[in-house]
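Subject: for your reference before the review

Hello V.,

The reviewers asked for a structural picture of the protein, and I figured it would be easier to keep everything in one thread rather than splitting it across files. Below is the amino acid sequence we used in the manuscript, unchanged from the supplementary table.
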Amino acid sequence: MGSLWSILLGCGLLVAVAGVVGSWLDRTQGSREHDSPAAPFSIEQAHTVMQSHCGCRADDCSRKAAAFRALVEAGRIVPDARADRYSL
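And here is what came back from the structure prediction:
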């Protein structure tokens, strides 16, 4: 029974390492889709980006941050007044 636990523990560690490596590769290789846009977003583009990057944090994703700023400037999003970092 001890070897079964060793195998299960080994598999669990392998899955955890694979998840971390996969996440790291996704961030480094797929980073272009998270880059800032060359030109400001239209309101419709900004809405689309916000939806497609819903899993991203605006702090980490320049594209989502640009979309957020575009929607704030258009008056479509009103950030919490207590959030100083969103002041334009």
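For the response letter, the relevant points are probably these. Residues 2-29 form the longest helix (28 residues). The chain has a mean pLDDT of 79.

Happy to draft the paragraph if you're swamped.

O.
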